[in-house]
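Quiz preparation item.
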């Protein structure tokens, strides 16, 4: 409310703050609502923290199985990346020959044990 209109402020209004060109007021109802909102925010923060502690405790109780799963997933991720690279390079798995040597089905004359990935790197 501006200083010029301070005389028009209802008597049940409570002065809250002085500002540069006037005063700020609240009503008892607004004060009560403010208290409810602030209280709800505090309760919400406390409940959120309690839930976090509970989840953390449950995770700690299952830590070993979670770590084993993470390890298995990381190995699977590496193997899937290898498979993607092989598919992208259109490579076939080596085949066993009668004499017990390993050959490349695309190039039957290739040396046993040659690494197609290494060959690709040398070609660059």
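Solution:
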């Amino acid at each position: 409310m501006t200083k010029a209109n301070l005389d028009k402020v209802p008597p049940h209004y409570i002065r809250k703050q002085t500002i540069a060109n006037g005063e700020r007021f609240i009503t008892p109802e607004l004060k009560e609502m403010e208290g409810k909102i602030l209280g709800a925010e505090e309760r919400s923060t406390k409940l959120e923290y309690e839930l976090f502690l509970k989840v953390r405790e449950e995770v700690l109780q299952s830590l070993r199985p979670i770590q084993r799963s993470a390890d298995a997933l990381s190995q699977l991720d590496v193997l899937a990346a290898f498979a993607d690279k092989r598919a992208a390079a259109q490579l076939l798995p080596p085949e066993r020959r009668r004499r017990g040597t390993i050959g490349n089905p695309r190039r039957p004359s290739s040396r046993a044990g040659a690494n197609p990935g290494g060959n690709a790197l040398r070609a660059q």
